[in-house]
Amino acid sequence: MEKAISSEAENSLKFAARSEEEKVSELVMLIRTPNLSKADMRTLESLIVTDVHSRDVTQEIMELNVRDTSIFEWISQLRHYTGIEESGRVKKVNRLEIKISMINSTRYYGFEY
Fold this sequence. Notes:
Blueprint: H1 2-6, H2 12-31, H3 38-63, H4 72-75, E1 79-87, E2 92-102, E3 105-109
Antiparallel strand pairs: 1-2, 2-3
Helix pairs in contact: 2-3
């Protein structure tokens, strides 16, 4: 999303919104799969809720024409970032890092769950 906000391309936010809509549609199709286990159903329900929220935020950012990642409408969102620390020529993953940011606060996820 930050790439779409910062992009010079005029339709980058529309493309991001379309991508979010497609993700929700794919999850809806998956949840309609017959004979899903309860665990799979709950996982898909959680993913749908998360992705619907993401779609709505993307739509709002697009409508407000936010073009700078330091603007309040963007930084006030709960944002998740992932990073992979790699080493060697073979790109061996040493560590996965997840951080959650909002406004000027950042916390690292410690894989507590």
